[in-house]
Amino acid sequence: MARHLITSALPYINGIKHLGNMVGSMLPADVYARYLRQTGRETLYICATDEHGTPAELGAKELGLPVAEFCAKQHDAQKAIYDGFGLSFDYFGRSSSPENREITQHFARRLQENGFIEERSIRQVYSLADGRFLPDRYIVGTCPHCGYDKARGDQCENCTRVLDPTDLIDARSAISGSSELEVRETKHLFLLQSKLQGEVEAWIDEHGKDWPILASSIARKWLTEGLNDRAITRDLDWGVPVPADTWPELAAEGKVFYVWFDAPIEYIGATKEWADQDPANRDWKSWWYEATDVRYTQFMGKDNVPFHTVMFPATQLGTREPWKKVDYVKAFNWLNYYGGKFSTSQKRGVFTHDALELLPADYWRYFMMANAPESDDTSFTWELFSATVNKDLADVLGNFVNRVLSFSKKRFGEEVPAGAEAGEAEAALGREIAQLLREYEEHMEAMQFRKAAQALRALWSAGNSYLEAKAPWLEIKTDPEAAALTLRTAMNLIHLYSVVSEPFIPSSAAAMRKAFALADDTATWVTADEARSLSSVPAGTAFSVPPVLFAKITEEDLESYRERFGGGDEAA
């Protein structure tokens, strides 16, 4: 059986992330990793903060902190939020780690040895107002291809074209806003992607056949336009330094590697960080080097696709070493805010720390996955959020759990009642649940998360339909044994829901599971046959009624959310 390696795009160190970042990489990766673990697959889920580049330097400068201290504080702040969302990383590392420095420099040396790195003198933009060379992303202007007036010097967010700063129209410094820019000569290292294009194309032809259209189309668009050689060093004080044993002159000048060169390598670096914590029992290389038994899945937003499907594979191929390359790229479109983009820089939309302040993580987890931007962009609105929470979580699941357990406790005490033998209604329910569970599993295996959420909701709805049809509140008046059977069956459904809902709503699933005092409740998943029998919670099992799982969002709540975060015409 294959081992599963999962990575999600590294969140940048500078600032707390918004919900669009969460749903575009980390949350679906977590849902998938949880599902794989529950169904018995060996799984390693790796992520890290992306800590190099100019924004980190500027963020530290703004707060008057050394950049290393700034990054350490930001890493801890982000990790606390991801813990709050229940993200089950096996390791959450840092791209500034010694491990990443070591492996990045190794990659660069190997690329140099194989003739895929070249030192070139180039003319680069220098800001007179800022007194420094400007990294590509800190030059902004109008994209020559689509006319977007906030394009960066490395890539246009609007059309995803890769750019050089000199391509921009009306270029200006993103730091000072000054257009007093001049071009000066400086030396940098270039990755000769043009020499690797044929190999990258062949690799994508072989491995990208089953990728989502979003990922494969972006990768092939890059290849069709042709891979250009790309500068992989920058004039910065913070980053992985160019190794002096290979490039002494550039090292003396303080050159560091481009953040997009070292950031994907941090997937490997973070795995080594994880292994270095317990070297006697963890082998990082077995996941990355000659790892023929590993299936590697990457999760990311569409803006990250080009670097992960073209630049990083080119880097790996150029080392001429057997590094594990991605098997499946799960790419996402944008989650927008009332039709406009979430924006960290413009502070538009709901940010992850604010979300956790308002409501428990499971509300957000379920909403985002049920509305995941898989096939196209989707839009967050407070109205859609409250409707999803109220209808799916509060009405369908929460109400079912509460009324079953509360009614049974009131009528039969604090143990699961025995009641009559299961009849045709229970057999039909078992068959329906088994079929719905198979559909849920199929969607999870295919990483179709919106469909998986629909299948999960259908499982919850089946319990409500059974309860309404049997009506134990009426049965109890004429046939208490029949009512007891209905409630026992419903309690078995609650336990089943507690297991299979865990990938989406782990905290609520744990609360449901803890309601039953089962002596040996070690099951990690429920098979179709087990689901059909509905017998995991036998009569006589003690139970308790948990607190309300999901409180409804009221109109007063909505008004306060819209007032605080915006919503409607003014948000768009």
From TrEMBL:
Monomer. Residues 416-568 form the Methionyl-tRNA synthetase anticodon-binding domain. Its cofactor is Zn(2+). GO terms for biological process: methionyl-tRNA aminoacylation. It catalyses: tRNA(Met) + L-methionine + ATP = L-methionyl-tRNA(Met) + AMP + diphosphate. Binds 1 zinc ion per subunit. SUPFAM superfamilies: Anticodon-binding domain of a subclass of class I aminoacyl-tRNA synthetases, Methionyl-tRNA synthetase (MetRS), Zn-domain, Nucleotidylyl transferase. A motif ('KMSKS' region) lies at residues 341-345. One of its GO terms (cellular component) is aminoacyl-tRNA synthetase multienzyme complex. Its EC number is 6.1.1.10. ATP binds at residue 344. Is required not only for elongation of protein synthesis but also for the initiation of all mRNA translation through initiator tRNA(fMet) aminoacylation. It comes from the Bacteria. Residues 4-405 form the Methionyl/Leucyl tRNA synthetase domain. GO terms for molecular function: ATP binding; metal ion binding; methionine-tRNA ligase activity. Belongs to the class-I aminoacyl-tRNA synthetase family. MetG type 1 subfamily. The keyword Protein biosynthesis applies. A motif ('HIGH' region) lies at residues 11-21. InterPro entries: Anticodon_Met, Met-tRNA_ligase_1, Met-tRNA_synth, Methionyl/Leucyl_tRNA_Synth, MetRS_core, MetRS_Zn, Rossmann-like_a/b/a_fold, tRNAsynth_Ia_anticodon-bd. It comes from Streptomyces eurocidicus. Keywords: Aminoacyl-tRNA synthetase, ATP-binding, Cytoplasm, Ligase, Metal-binding, Nucleotide-binding, Protein biosynthesis, Zinc. This is Methionine--tRNA ligase. It is an enzyme of class 6 (ligase). Gene3D superfamilies: HUPs, Isoleucyl-tRNA Synthetase, Domain 1, Methionyl-tRNA synthetase, Zn-domain. It is found in: Cytoplasm. Zn(2+) binds at residues 143, 146, 156, 159.
